[in-house]
Amino acid sequence: MSPLDWIVLFGTLVLIVAYGLYRSRGSDTVDRFLLAGKTMPWYAMALSIMATQASAVTFISTTGQSYIDGMRFVQFYFGLPIAMVILCATVVPVFHRAKVFTAYEYLEQRFDAKTRALASVLFLCSRGLAAGLTLYAPAIVLSAILGWPDRVTIALMGITVVMYTSLGGVKAVTWSDVQQMIIIFLGLVASLVTVFVLLPKSVSIPDAVYLAGAAGRLNAVTTNFDWNDRFTLWSGLIGGTFLFLSYFGCDQSQVQRYLTGSSIAQSRLSLLFNAIAKIPMQFFVLFIGAMVFVFYLFVQPPILFEQPQLAHIEHTAAFSSLQSRYEKAFGRRKEAATRLIAARHAGDPVAERRQFADYRAAQRDLDAARGEASRLVEANGGERGFSDTNYIFLSFVTRYLPAGLVGLVIAVMFAATMSASAGEINSLATVSMVDLYRRHFRRNASDHHYLMASRWATIFWGAYAVASAGFGHRLGSLIVAVNMLGSLFYGSLLGVFVLAFFFRGVRGTGAFWGMLLGEAFVFGAFLFTGISFLWYNVIGCVVVILTALAVTWFSSRTVAENRLVSGR
Amino acid sequence: MGESHQPLGQVAQNGPCYTPVMPALREVPDEPPPFLGTWRRVYAGVLLYLAAIIALCYLFSALYTFPLALP
């Protein structure tokens, strides 16, 4: 990076953190620290919700996902507007009127203490692991740029996030998120414009879109039904709805955002803004990845984007012949792409079909060579299931973006991650303090005591996130890993909230056992089947409801029989 | 605000536990949306928007993904 990049990077970060802390002054009571005194306007909550969900993973992993697999990932978000409408109509007014700090607090009002405790623990498990991954994403950015080990950069990011979160509370998190989303938007637009500018002069924007489509990178909708396919229209609409119902209705990291609203209407508007804006935003990010793919049709990309791993295999005997094959395949693909555009411009469908076949064949050869390089990494002591998806966009940014813009894009990634991590750690601390510590260990202490407990809980969860981030490199594509981890727990959480809202006859014991069995089924599906993770939410939710209904039915039957016996 | 030891909200059978006071939450009235008159209409609008987005994404895929782009 150039000196200008460093100035832009640190200037942007200092500005965001300072502004967030400035707006958070006065967070000196528990309600202000955890809920901002319920004073936040809808637009701040809306951008904060979006920023917490986006994080650096949006930039790093989603672009890489579309580079490798096309834009099918956008279907994942089709369930979001449906979920938001359901939540606005049901959950938001209930949580507001229940006057709770956490979603799980409501479960004790509706069921009992053990159900609240189990839901809290499930949330802590899922969000704690995800918080680690959120920290890991920018750590690999720093590692790639500075050549530092992942662990050092993870620790540095974690310490910064913990300081920021423990000082400012939810208000600092929310206002820094607002700044961050503005910078993210600027960074996205600047990245796409730069990709277009960097394309060869003979390749127009419609040509670029055409080439991306011909390589299968613009396949935004897949209508076939396949249980094992992660991203189809149906898994997105059905599985996605369940996932987002769980995420925005049962995950404290999101619930806490809209609980800071001054009214039900403000909270609803913040969620509906996300319902409208999220899909176009993800489409835009994926489109950038597809355009980066087109850029690399004309500029040879490295066989692997993760430089340290590439350096690790370059000395091996098999590498030179593999590299040679890769370079030949790249040359063929470049020529085929050029001829394909020429045939399109000439309006010759026969030549177009022929060039298309060559283009796709060269792409397959290129993918095969990359696959062999990945296996070579594994064979030479690398991680099993090695994937360089998360390095694709970074590699492009650091090599080809102009001075100043590199710093801005890297700052976006840092700011996004800091805010997302801060939001997660803040919610983890809230649940630990409100649902566990205050409920089960220390009931009647002072407000100051609970404020300090919240700050210590923040520090604890920050340390936990740093520790679990060390395993991030084992999980392949980060965006998929984050959502998969969430899906392992969200189905059961969603199930218990559905019971709370819609099954008035179900009591605490039924809900509690339903959650336990729901988790057992989800982990069974994860360990022993190839079912796509989006369906875990459906499975978990359905098992929780059916189990709770069965327990309730048996309980009521037993009570009725006992009454009958005692009546005799 | 921030007053200590003041119970608030309903508590289940295990007895009272401390809950700090949250300001301006004595009453939580519902308000109409700033546009379209009722929340039901707003929700219907969001769902129609989703249908339009999916249709546009489908058309985008059909238009640019080979061999559909070829006559």
What's the helix and strand layout?
The complex is a heterodimer of chains A (about 575) and B (about 70).
Chain A: H1 3-23, H2 30-35, H3 42-69, H4 80-89, H5 91-98, H6 103-110, H7 113-146, H8 150-198, H9 205-214, H10 233-250, H11 252-259, H12 264-298, H13 307-313, H14 317-346, H15 349-379, H16 392-400, H17 405-441, H18 447-469, H19 478-502, H20 508-528, H21 534-567
Chain B: H1 39-64
What's a quick, concise take on this entry?
The complex is a heterodimer of chains A (568) and B (71). Chain A is mainly α and 568 residues long.
Question: Which features does this protein show?
Answer:
heterodimer; A: 568 residues; mainly alpha; Sodium/glucose cotransporter; 2 domains; B: 71 residues; 1 helix; 37% helix; rod-shaped; disordered N terminus
Structural class of chain B: mainly alpha
Average of pLDDT of chain A? 84
Helix content of chain B: 25-40%
CATH fold group of the largest domain in chain A: Sodium/glucose cotransporter
Taking the sheet with the most strands of chain A, its summary is:
none
The H-and-E topology of chain B, N to C, reads as H
Q: How many individual β-strands of chain B? A: 0
* Rg of chain A: 25 Å
Largest interface: A-B, 66 and 49 residues
User: Which regions of chain A have little confidence, pLDDT < 50, spanning 5+ residues?
Assistant: none
Number of helices of chain B: 1
Q: What CATH first level of the largest domain in chain A would be assigned?
A: Mainly Alpha
How much beta of chain A, percentage-wise?
under 5%
What global shape of chain A is seen? globular
> What is the count of helical runs of chain A?
21
From the helix content, strand content and strand pairing of chain A, which structural class follows? mainly alpha
N- and C-termini, Cα separation of chain A: 87 Å
- Based on CA atoms alone, the radius of gyration of chain B comes out at 25 Å
